[in-house]
Amino acid sequence: MDLDFLESMVGEAVEESPYRGIWVVAEKEGEALAPVVLEMLGKARQLSDSLGVYVKAVFLGESTEELRQELVSNGADVVYVTDDPRLSAYNTEIYSKVLGDLIEEGKPEIVLLGATSTGRDLAPRLAQRLGTALFTNCLNLEIDEMQRQLLATYPVYGGEYFQTSVCPKARPQMATVLPGAFRPPLADPSRTGEVETIAVEINDLEVRSKVLKVVSEEARPEVPLDKAKMVVSGGRGMGDAESFALVEELAEVLGGQVGGSRGAVDEGWIDEEKRVGLGGTQIAPDLYVACGIAGAIQHYAGILDSKFVVAINRDPNATIFQVADVGIVGDVHEVLPALIKELKETV
Ligand SMILES: Cc1cc2nc3c(=O)[nH]c(=O)nc-3n(C[C@H](O)[C@H](O)[C@H](O)COP(=O)(O)OP(=O)(O)OC[C@H]3O[C@@H](n4cnc5c(N)ncnc54)[C@H](O)[C@@H]3O)c2cc1C
Question: What is the pTM of this model?
């Protein structure tokens, strides 16, 4: 916002803050950028338009030309990279030191990190180092243009409520963003931006831990849940692991992915990585089928962006029916085999 205009509104001289711009901390998932990075860039662009500032991405690992361009294509005006091999694997101490120094020098007013295992580890350290506040697991971010304040909305009380907070005094304003909270932007490969290689100063004595081995997860679903067009999820109502196979069969017939509620994860029928919901993956499929799932708020928070929801539950008062486009009151052990048979005959 124009300072003169702001002064005329406030009626007194306004001191211009040295903090300007929005930074997104980028990270990879496997060989590609983590989807949440693109989602944050899209949101950062919207916020930067309100503030009239640049969006900058910081990537500390080993970067390629494609990766740098992808950050630019998705909204970064500037990309900071390093070419220091000591940063190729994530290390809390090194990353918080390098990023902390960079942020102190560059003075962004907002810093966003993904609520990934790396982001959840790094962000609190960084906030503590910078002497600022951190809003975690944000599901929405808005701007109060008058005050140049970030309005961060995140779940509280186990997801029963949402709270919106501001950080009025300390800068930068920091937030971690839940994967799937925002839609990724439409990439524009013709977009141009600057790439700056930053010098890294690390005193080896400051680093007390080192990464010995990186163990990658094996059983990743072929299509990540947050990208799947169809997701069939099972809950505790499936009864046992044998019956849960019906969920997998329906997903296969539909050509979709298998997910589940925390109930199913707790029962050991599916892996944690397939959990749909607030503490799992936030999904946005064209079709979501919930089988034997109650529809707790924490589960619902993960399916808000689904285009069409079908729920199967034997309890006609199950909460899931309140958010379903089509509700089938019945026993999953009867409804699912019938549905699978019908689909196999017609598809
Ligand atoms: C901080 C926090 C984070 C959480 N994050 C998540 C999350 O990410 N994802 C998530 O899912 N949950 C999450 N939860 C847990 C959530 O509150 C619920 O406890 C969980 O979603 C319940 O799973 P469920 O619906 O499978 O099981 P239940 O609550 O046990 O419901 C089972 C349902 O199946 C129906 N049913 C039973 N038998 C049959 C049958 N034969 N045929 C048809 N229907 C049947 C029942 O009527 C019932 O509605 C979280 C909780 C907290 C506190």
Answer: 0.62
